[in-house]
Write a structure and sequence with these properties.
The structure holds two protein chains of two kinds. Chain A is an alpha+beta fold. In chain A, 34% of the residues lie in helices and 26% in strands. In chain A, helix 5 packs across helix 11, helix 6 crosses helix 11 and helix 8 runs antiparallel to helix 10. The two termini of chain A are 34 Å apart. Chain B is α+β, with helices and mostly antiparallel strands. In chain B, the strands form two sheets. In chain B, strands 1, 2, 6, 7 and 8 form a five-stranded antiparallel beta sheet that branches. Chain B starts with 6 loop residues before the first strand and ends with a strand. The chains are: A alpha+beta, B alpha+beta. Chains A and B meet through strand 4, helix 8, helix 10 and helix 14 of A and strand 1, helix 2 and strand 6 of B.
């Protein structure tokens, strides 16, 4: 990283000047304090590496939660011209359509507090989580393929949630162009019994309370009230998505050699969007994205059941409703204006969230005036933010913003720092009841391992990439 | 007795980095497979009741290592099978054939300590040194 001269543009932006094989400059959104931590890893170099890919438009971007990934940095955003541009499985990531969804309930925090232990326990029993977790249902191949094509619609059709949920997801919970023939037998095998499972690592299910409202009007439209109980779910496409990424990386590493493309990192392997290889990856990626939406839809359904059971409430009394569902790892074909010209682009968001402005045609009617809800989970036990997309994000970052706090400490360092401490006790002292399938996960995911979520969100708010609507505080957490 | 493991982990912000050593190229690859399963499970509880054939091709040593580890990882991620031993039967820059011994994962008997989700090409390295062979690879966890 030391060989990089970053030029500060303004309060929130740093430029990675164009040099060598870079086709465009890099722009990193950050604050002085966050930048100090970023400067210590290789992520700025990864921003520069992405800038070398064919067909990249305007600049290689990074959000303030950026950290060192492989190939693309985590927190990276890059858009490629549909003509002459590439699509890269590494630019989407292994956990295709890893994402978040937020549900509000009718409960006030005083109603849940006395029953919190029971609630967390029931959630832990009822929602499959943990290493290699398997779901309550095993899909025959033909049914699994329907999930891949239909996405969350499949779940709704099969009794998990309601039709109205679909409009509260990006793309209605289903990316078009999904072709199960592009998905390997191995990926299907890994996916057969994992739909409706949380998984391990940084995935979680959190019971939260709305702590602060920043924008009353928008919060009212989103149905968010101070003191109310909400649930945030963070999960993705599980083993199926990982296998799709793995299969296509291997394929495209060879493909890149054949094309004679000289890449700074093999993990950046890619194909031209319009080539058969590029189209095939996009078809397979859509399948995995659809699997992830089905997964989160089923997790939501079981969350509702668990809450009803623990609190002895009817679904109507609980009143759980989906606010929105966002993708963190995905490539999407979108129209953007570049240098005054409308262009169709393949926008890669790897650890970044779409943040479309008010009036955007991709938004459901109910959010047309507010802009797209953006959900930003913090580290374990700190809670989350709800923001909305802005016109400035559209102009500067292809309608994108940050996705979370972003790691600052490696997993090994976190394990070391946690020695001799009880992380679950510490969390309890902070008012958060945590249950984890594996002990190690708690240590790896401890709050100190992440950047300060307040600071990350203040950067995107200050830079105008999205606007703060509400802050939620965690009170219960299920970790894989 | 102190048993020195033929691998160690290194820091990578979100993921898991491994440095593996071995006196020969064949033992380097065998140690890499063992390292993966040493991290996934408690090997002491795994028995060698079954044999599986692992056969991969590669375009150079790094590519071969990544492809090999991809196959080895699939034994657990795809087939729920735990590896305890691995013997390399044949190895060149272009390909590798090996015999893995282990048994199917049994939730009553085995423990899964950590999930390794994928192996990456990012900064993958295989080198011959005066002391033998060494490799470096980053996993998605």
């Amino acid at each position: 990283m030391s060989d990089f001269k970053l030029r500060r543009i303004d309060e929130y932006r740093w430029e990675v000047p164009r040099e060598g094989a870079m086709r465009v400059p890099g722009i990193i959104y950050s604050s002085g304090r966050l930048m100090k931590a970023m400067g210590q890893d290789e992520s700025p170099k990864q921003v520069a590496n992405v800038a070398q890919l064919p067909g990249i438009v305007k600049c290689s971007l990074a959000m303030p939660d950026m950290h060192w990934g492989y190939g693309f940095p985590i927190g990276g955003v890059a858009a490629f011209d549909m003509n002459g541009g590439i699509v890269s499985p590494g630019g989407v990531g292994y956990d295709i359509n890893c994402g978040c969804r937020l549900m509000m309930t009718n409960l006030g925090q005083e109603e849940i507090r006395p029953h919190l232990a029971k609630v967390v326990n029931t959630l832990f029993q009822h929602v499959p989580s943990g290493v290699g977790s398997k779901g309550a249902l095993k899909l025959p191949r033909n049914e699994e393929k329907r999930v891949l094509v239909e996405g969350a619609r499949w779940a709704v059709k099969n009794g998990y949630g309601s039709q109205g949920d679909l409009e509260s997801m990006e793309d209605g919970g289903c990316l078009p162009g999904a072709d199960p023939e592009a998905v390997s037998e191995r990926a299907l095998e890994r996916g057969k019994d994992q739909v409706g499972t949380l998984g391990s690592g940084n995935h979680f299910l959190e019971v939260e309370v709305v702590e602060k409202i920043f924008d009353r009007d928008v919060a009212a439209v989103l149905g968010i009230e101070e003191g109310q109980v909400a649930v945030m779910i963070h999960s993705g496409s599980r083993g199926l998505g990982h296998q799709v990424c793995d299969d296509y990386l291997a394929k495209l590493v060879k493909h890149v050699d054949k094309l004679g493309l000289n890449l700074p990192d093999r993990q950046l392997a890619c194909a031209y969007i319009q080539s058969p290889e590029g189209q095939q990856y996009l078809s397979a990626m859509a399948c995995a994205a659809n699997y992830a939406w089905t997964n989160r839809q089923m997790l939501m359904h079981w969350t509702g059941e668990a809450l009803e059971r623990a609190l002895g409430m009817s679904p109507r009394a609980l009143g759980m409703r989906l606010v929105y569902d966002v993708c963190h790892n995905i490539a999407k074909i979108e129209e953007h204006v570049v240098d005054g010209k409308k262009m169709l682009l393949c926008v890669h968001r790897k650890g970044a969230t779409r943040a479309f402005p008010p009036g955007h045609p991709a938004l459901p009617d109910k959010y047309r005036k507010t802009g797209q809800p953006v959900l930003i989970p913090g580290d374990m036990g700190t809670g989350s933010y709800v923001l909305v997309g802005t016109q400035k994000a559209m102009e500067e970052t292809f309608g994108s913003t940050c996705h979370g706090a972003g790691r600052v400490m490696s997993r090994a360092a976190a394990m070391k720092a946690s020695r001799g401490r009880s992380i679950s006790r510490e969390m309890e002292d902070r008012g958060v009841l945590v249950m984890a399938a594996a002990k190690g996960t708690l240590a790896e995911e401890m709050p100190e391992a992440y950047k300060d979520i307040d600071e990350v969100v203040n950067v995107v708010h200050g830079a105008g990439l999205s606007r703060k609507v509400a802050k939620l505080r965690a009170i219960g957490c299920i970790k894989g | 007795m102190i048993i020195v493991k033929p691998y160690h982990t290194f820091d990578h912000t979100a993921d898991l980095g491994l440095v593996i050593i071995g006196p020969s190229e064949a033992s380097l690859f065998a140690n890499a497979a063992l390292a993966v399963f040493d991290i996934i499970t408690d090997l002491a509880r795994v028995e060698t009741r079954e044999t599986r054939r692992v056969s991969v091709e590669g375009d150079g040593r790094e590519d071969l290592l990544v492809n090999f580890l991809r196959e080895v990882l699939y034994l657990y991620n795809g087939e729920r099978w735990l590896l305890k031993e691995l013997r390399v039967l044949r190895i060149s820059e272009k390909g590798l054939e090996a015999e893995a011994r282990g048994e199917p994962f049994d939730v009553q008997k085995h423990e899964i300590c950590k999930e390794i989700k994928a192996v990456t090409y990012h900064q993958a390295q295989v080198r011959q040194t005066p002391a033998g062979w060494t490799a470096r690879v980053i996993f998605d966890v």
